[in-house]
From TrEMBL:
The organism's taxonomic lineage, starting at the top: Bacteria, Pseudomonadati, Pseudomonadota, Alphaproteobacteria, Hyphomicrobiales
Top-level taxon of the source organism: Bacteria
Protein name: Glutathione S-transferase
GST C-terminal domain span: 86-198
Domain GST N-terminal, residue spans: 1-80
Length: 198
């Protein structure tokens, strides 16, 4: 059985939401990061970065929320959370799947720390550019690839929920508000939120 190592109020929410969307049986393994459980030698064998979430599926073990989303969507194609490799939409799917950790998270760090980085050297460009690009993409809706909900929406939706709804680090925009509302309305999102709240 798939084991998801997670902790409340962390990046684990993406993986928790993912697993609830799949409908696959899985075991949640609470990893208390307030006590340093993620630094235990047994856990570091699963994720040497000592972070949550992590996932173990038979002999496969990995960390990083977006990587977990990619792995599960590909390993279990019956979940229909990713376009097949031969589908031209796969290219945009992968781009948006990694836009979360590659652009949204650095953009949020830039906002939070008020870090001034030249856009020519910042891999994410600038926080303003990140959220302008996302705004334009989401205005087409209802999901990041159009009509089809995918694992990329879990990554993007989790990031926007965190940035706009929960911590109010990014000002709301009509496209963000509508997209977050669609995410929050999903039964799997609601189940994950309930689990995360304890």
């Amino acid at each position: 059985m798939i084991k998801l190592y997670w902790s409340p109020r962390s990046r684990s929410f993406s993986a928790l939401w993912l697993m609830e969307e799949t409908g696959l049986p899985y075991e949640r393994v609470l990893t208390d990061i307030t006590t340093g459980a993620q630094k235990a030698p047994e856990y570091l064998k699963i994720n040497p970065m000592g972070k949550v979430p992590s996932l173990v599926d038979g002999d496969a073990a990995l960390g990083e929320a977006a990587a977990i989303c990619a792995y599960v969507a590909d390993r279990y194609p019956e979940t229909k959370l990713a376009p097949p490799p031969t589908d031209p939409r796969r290219a945009r799917y992968l781009q948006w799947l990694f836009f979360g950790p590659g652009c949204i998270e650095p953009g949020l760090i830039q906002i939070f720390t008020k870090l001034e980085v030249p856009t020519s050297t910042a891999a994410w460009g600038s926080a303003t550019q990140v959220f302008d690009v996302l705004d334009a993409a989401l205005a087409k809706g209802p999901w990041i690839l159009g009509e089809e909900f995918t694992a990329a929406d879990i990554v993007i939706g989790s990031g926007l929920n965190f940035a706009v709804r929960m911590f109010k680090m990014v000002p709301p925009r009509p496209s963000f508000d509508a997209y977050i509302a669609r995410c929050v309305a999903r039964p799997a999102f609601q189940r994950a939120e309930k689990i995360a709240a304890g």
